[in-house]
Structures are given as C-alpha cells and as structure tokens.
Amino acid sequence: IIDELMREEAEGKAWLLEELKKHDYEANASHGNFIFIKPKKSAQEVSDILREKKILIKTFGNEFFINIKR
Length: 70
Hints:
The chain is an alpha+beta fold. It has two helices and four strands.
C-alpha cells in the first residue's frame, strides 16, 4: 500500500508540474512532497483566495508552496 501511495503522489506531482508549465507558471519541485510556485499575483492574494475555498498554502515572501500530501 505504501508503494502505491508513493506512486500516486509522484504521478500527481508530475501532473501538477506539467499543468503549471502549460499555464506559464514558474515552479520548483524538490524530492520532497511540496512544490514552490511563483504566483502571477501576490502570494498573499492567492493565499486569501484559496483559503476561502478551504485550500491552505504556506507563503514565503512572494512565493508559496503546495504540500501535495493527501
């Protein structure tokens, strides 16, 4: 079951990175379970919009990261 979860996480991360690239977002993924994304609006504005939709992100200056753990 752990191998299956790890595979699903890797597939989801790859999909998200590809979608971000298609929409001209700058993203940096490491070997961890997160992705740094440079937003087109201020990170705080994006955070506020997503919070209203019950999606929590962590901002760092004008960047944020998405934890892709399920």
